[in-house]
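The freezer alarm interrupted the setup, so I double-checked each line after restarting. Inputs confirmed:
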Amino acid sequence: MNAESTASNPPLRAAARPVPLFSPGRVATIASGTVTQLVRMKTFYFLLAFALVVVAVGNFNLPATPAKELSMIKKVSFGTMDLFAWLFAIVATALLIPRDQEDRTLYTILSKPVRRIEYLLGKLCGVLVVVGVSLVIMYGICATMIGARESLFVSAEIEAMAANGGYSQEQIDEQVGLIRQQGLRPELGLAVLASFLKAAVVAAVTIFLSTFASSSLFTIIVSILIFLIGHAHTMASSFWLHSSDNSLFVQMLVKVVKILIPDFQLYSFSEGIVQGEAVAYALVGQMGLVTAGYLVVFLLLSLLVFVDKEF
Amino acid sequence: MSELAVEVKNLTKVFTLGLKKEYVVAIDNLSFEVKAGEVYGLIGPNGSGKSTTMKVVLGLMAPSKGEARVFGLDSGDIRARNEIGFLPENPYFYKHLTGAETLRFYGKLCGMRGRELENRVTELLKLVDLQGAANRRLGGYSKGMLQRIGLAQSLVQNPRLVILDEPTAGVDPIGSRQIRDLIMHLRDEGYTVFLCSHLLEQVQEVCDRVGILFQGRMRKEGRLEELISIEDQTTLTLEGASPELLARLHELVTSEPDARIVAEGHPRTSLEHLFIQIAERNREASK
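Predicted 3D structure, all chains:
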């Protein structure tokens, strides 16, 4: 290399194209990269475990009426589905950002024209897509099992009542109706939606924790703790705040916890849906808005920590 | 005056250690410029502040004092990063992606889509000689292949400035030579290259200008030939010279009062050159 060769350089390269302030395309790229990563990490294998649980529960003959048996199958299946969804949301989210930091993949991503909010949003969207797809598959497994059992119970009930004789068509219809009420109904989709919304909030909380946590293990443990506190703090706070024995400090502490930790008990309306209760659609809409609020708050908090983070 | 690709002015970076309020000055009032179209090498021992300087230029770190600009834009500005391609010291990529998927991923992050992206991916895979491994996951790549896909990734959006951090670290001599050839090709294509290395021979081969960093401070900077040439000495390499000619040359030199022969002998090839020659010869023979 010498001065002459520098002087004979080819024409310099043209300036880069303009960069938009916010690019949904970049968010989508990071989200689809996250989906590919989770799929290739073989995370969908947990669905096999879920399928086994549902098949086992569905084939367990309980000493109860068909309606009660169906109700039990639904409760256990939807409970397991809910558990898998929020646990998966925590573990997947906790693994992604710390791993990008540890492997320093984050260096190469953030050295491209990517805003940090786009990175966080992309990761969250990627996890939510996988959680959503998993819930749909799990619901499909549940629906198949519940539908099969329901048909079996209905035909067995009709046969038994006809064999015994003395039952009017109205009585048979009433009995079948009781079974059908605990069977596969379209409203059950709303219970799946509730699980999804809850998992979305859990994932947002986990993203916030992983922006400053030093390890995935710490993030997972603290996220689970927050989830558990979030399920109990409404009950706990009503006890602590209304007890006259507690000091001002305890009352303040309870209030702070109540503000900082999302109230996951709000999503328990899905239990009523699973049990065959009537659905308050306004409540479902309200939950959607509350979830959006939580997502915005936790994403902003994450950005606050992440925006000035040095790598 | 030629355009400046990188402009670092009075840059200081201080790290706080833990909660004890202990400070470490990683870069101390550093100033230098990289002109558009040149290959600039920042050299220094480990811990001298090279990587920190790069991270500030890349916008991954904020300066404690001073400033860093890329083509006139503040290094923290996202538009500056669209002008930069970065190859980190170790290949920090998703191992679950294939070579082609990696390039597509980074291309999309830079706003490329469709035919334009596909053409660029094909072009870059050819440039770094990885067409045969395009559909293999990075988990199965060798260190040299990872560095080459990393270099391709850094060029995906056709940046004006390419930043290379220890580009041949841990790569065998043949892979190292390939990367060196690619850097020279980039220079010929009009890219500005800013590289950090502690492998001095490599820097000497490819750089137009170098800066020597030690303990966060610029100790020496300038054009390479100005820094390393010994002004009052001349090398003369002869081929087929007879002993008589050599004797006459000796006489001629000793007849000059101020001149003397400092060294005399047979020029040697470098071990690296010898290794590459043997490897290439064997490769040819095995074909």
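Quick read of the result. The CA atoms of residues 57 and 144 of chain A lie 13 Å apart.
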